[in-house]
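Protein modeling request. Please complete all fields; requests missing the sequence field cannot be processed.
Requester role: graduate student
Desired output: 3D structure, token encoding
Chains: 1
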Amino acid sequence: MELFLAQLVSGLSTGGIYALLVLGMNLITLVRNVVHHGFSHTCIFTMAVGWLVYNKTGMPWLAFLAMFAAGVLVTVLSEPLFRPLSKRGADLETIVLAMGIGIILSELIVNFFNSGQVLSFNDEMKIFTTKFQVGAITVSVASIVALVACVVIAIIISTYLFKSSEGRAMRAMAQNLRVAKMLGVPFGKTGVLGFLIAGLLAACIGVICIMCLGYCNAEMGDSFATKAVILMLFAGQGDIKGGILSSILMGVVEAMALAYLPGRWAEAIFYGFMMVIIIIKPNGLFARKAKN
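Delivered output (292 residues):
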């Protein structure tokens, strides 16, 4: 029972990270109809920037500030690149561009941060290092804090998208761009705002990953990107609530598979379950709900 509870907390924390990744990608999808494969790489890049600034200054608050600056800078500067492609409806070209951004960020990490080696964060950057016992199982406070942070951030951004005028403008653009323009929704301004929020979210994900994992490397961007894209397709592209629910569900499934099944069955179950759902419902598990 203790193992189950520990894995449940771990799975919920992992699912929370997946949910924020999918949320950020869905946010960009709303304003530019782009599956931004490079968004996950942006999250890892912010972690690398935080690692570098902390090692140069020894000040964690400055490192976290640099992470948010890096996240916003990378995402906002990429928006003008996607804008003309989005206007033309060049879906294939946007995918190539997004993947190219991810590759560039990964190469920057490999060549300019710790000679491409794993970047390890010390306790000051991890913030919450306390652990407590639940029977024979050790539970990390960082996992619980990360779970709460993921829930709070997801609620704030979801509320913004569904309750604020700017959020409704973003969703209107996703539903019908031409009608949204006719109704006066500013294409450029709304897009930049969406990318800016996604940049802040990328830094938040970076901070949470530092707390939970304590390290990063360039390869993590590819791993996160693959899972986030699959989860988007699983829930239905652009479906905010479905993406969050699907991510949390799969985080728990993955954690339980790691605990109770041998070898790399966790990966097999994750991708196998996704594949079956996508084949059965190619528009996404929550597609019908999203249309309503």
